[in-house]
Amino acid sequence: MSTSDYLAANQANWDDRAPLHAARDGSGYGVARYLNDPAALSDVVTFDLPLLGDIAGLTAVHLQCHIGTDTISLARLGATVTGLDFSRESIAEARKLASEAGDAVEFVESDVHLALDALPPEAFDLVYTGIGALCWLPRVQDWAKVVAGLLAPGGTLHLREAHPILWAMDESVTTDLALRYPYFEHVEPLEWDDAETYVDTPTALTATKTYEWNHSLGEIVTALLETGLRVEALVEHQSVPWEALPGQMTLGDDGEWRLTDRAGVVPLSYTLRAVKPA
After folding, report:
1. Is the pTM of this model over 0.85?
2. CB-based burial of residue 117 (10 Å sphere; 0-12 exposed, 13-18 middle, 19+ buried)?
3. 88 has pLDDT over 80
């Protein structure tokens, strides 16, 4: 298979996930809370707040935005936000949710690699990339170039991602931490075939095959530095917002999962902030 075949399979999978994640019955992402409470923020953006800082008045783009819950949350913090995603169904659900909730957010359907064709260059004070995004991209250098191209001089990238050491672990081992998969970027992706998604849904997926790539922390930092961005912060966290290692994690009141017995042994996610020099 070619890279385009891998990405097409991933797109079909996310098209399949979108209506399940956007269900109004309490399953999926539980999106009813955004409709019932105009001040509600996603758990992900709430976790980001201390490092994200005040974004009121900023022009922001959320890359790989899925159904837009984090995108809407950024808008509720006062930013003018555009969400971008390659999944047509995700964008449709995001637009529907924002319209029903009364939030002024623009959504654009585009592969993140083509974002500079779909959006104006150097137009954004903030590029936001949420958790679970980079693993779907074959080459982190290509993503870094897009980020640098979208940022206005003086603009900031805010990235929170699952740690590459977590992506390298075998989640089927439920009694201990076990490294199995590549930590470094690899040409051929890991292939998965799974009818379930990472949140509770009433029905199974039909487009079940997905393809993922890991990127080491050093590769991510280096790719951003090579575009001319200046890394200002890199913070590793002991939590992640889904049960990444079933049977070994405990859910906190903040919506974050932490290791139950091996806390502090490995990082589970990280936040990176980088600035484009003025």
Report:
1. yes
2. exposed
3. yes
